[in-house]
Here is the input.
Amino acid sequence: MGLLIIGAGLIAASQTLHEKADQIIIWSEGLISMEPVLGMAVFVILAMLSAMVAFFSSAIIVPIAVFAWGKTTCLLLLWLGWLLGGIASFCIGRFLGRRVAAMLIGEEKIAGWQSQVGERARFTHILLFQAVVPSEIPGYVLGILRYRFSFYLAALAITELPYVIGVVYLGDSFLKGEGTLIIVLGVATVLLGAMWLRLRRHGGTG
Here is the structure.
């Protein structure tokens, strides 16, 4: 995610690349204006998928959504999509089982994180788990563990909201061409991620 943010910052910082991106955004907004309801539905579905699999990030299309609908509507649609993605991943883990979940995110991720949480984990632990782990993982793991759905949904809604606000803010900054700010935030994200991985490895070997 940090590298993606840095890449967006470099594009925003380049007048030529930013102008090209603006052309794509304006063209996309023109398509959305022809079918606004369909455009919102597609955006929510893409946001939902981004919360379920690692290979796609909805942050890529957020500038288009901000340009088309404004920050508030974009925030609500993105939050809805991420919540639906989390609910879907939880249901897959709970009702379709470990084998199907492993096909989507990998058995190693499931096994690694399942050993660190339990079906009776406290709500504060689930909040932390949801906040620090890549978004495509917790739903599957907690669904497999048959964790209480109402607690999971509450943790999901609480922890995703700051990320939604941050992504929408970055999308708006991209539209304004604030490349330096985006790059700084991207570097900070990479450094925080590296520190977290180091702490995790240290905790696992200690």
Observations:
- The chain has a mean pLDDT of 85.
- The chain has eleven helices and no strands.
